[in-house]
Structures are given as C-alpha cells and as structure tokens.
Amino acid sequence: MGEGRGDNPDGVSTEHLKLELLEEIHMKDVVHLSILEIKHEMAELEASLNSDHEGSEWKTRYETQLELNGQLEKQIVSLEEKMEKIRGNPSEKEKRSLENQVKDYALKLEQESKAYLRTNNERHTYIAEMSQAAGSHQASKKQQTDQLPRMKESYLKMYV
C-alpha cells in the first residue's frame, strides 16, 4: 500500500475516516439536540394548553360562544315556528279577507239599491209627465177633431 494512504485497503487514509466519523458524530449530536429542544417545546405547549391561566380564558370564551349559539338557534326555531303559524293559518287571513269582501259587497249593494230607487223614481216621474203630456195631446187632438166639423160648417156658411 502506498504512503499517506494509511493501512486502509481502499486507499482512504485513516485520518480522513476519523474526520468523517467526527463530522457524523457531530451531526448526530445536533440532531439529538434538536429533538430534545422540540420535545421541550412540545412539553411547554402542552403545559400552557392545560394550564388554567391562558387556556381557561379561551375555554371560557368558547363555552360562552357555544351557549350563545344555542340560545340563538332556539330563537331562530321559535321565530320560524311563529312564521309557520302565520303562513300555515290562512283561515284567519281568509276570514278577514272574506269579511272585507262581504263589507265591500254590502256597500256596493246599498249604493246600487239607492241608484235603482232614484232611477225608478225618475222613470215614474217621466212616465207621469209623458202620460200627462199624452193626455193633454189627446185632449187637444180631440178638441181639434171636435172643432173640425164646426169649422167646416163655418167655412161652408161663409163661402157657400
């Protein structure tokens, strides 16, 4: 084997191998140290999570929010039930609507009855006036026909 290569059959010096071994040991120690730091940090986080100091505030807030959400959900259900009763009970609405329609029709009937009576009274008045006028006309015509023979006689007496 050659000089500076040491006793290693692969041609790598022992010093070089020792150096690599030291680097590997150092890397191993760094990894172990990182693992210890992470475990320590995890333990601290778990402790703070379980501690009454910081965790209880968030736990209290969470529980309060859950309670408030529950109350709001109950109110929503209650309001939805009320809306269903209003929507689901059209008989009251129909009843009011029909009552209003009946009132409207009663008012229209009263107005139409009054208009009919007025018109009927006017019709009777016109008929009476027409009968009177027709009677006068008949009387006048009769008078004229009664006077016709007299006028004829008078005419004949005068000109004959």
From TrEMBL:
Keywords in alphabetical order: Coiled coil
Q: Does the keyword Plastid apply?
A: no
Among its keywords, does the record have Coiled coil?
A: yes
Q: Where is this region: Disordered?
A: 130-153
Q: Where is the composition biased (Polar residues)?
A: 133-147
Q: Which residues form a coiled coil?
A: 62-115
User: What Pfam families does its record include?
Assistant: DUF4600
- What PANTHER family has UniProt attached to this entry? COILED-COIL DOMAIN-CONTAINING PROTEIN 169
Q: What name does the UniProt record give this protein?
A: Coiled-coil domain containing 169
Q: Which organism is it from?
A: Jaculus jaculus
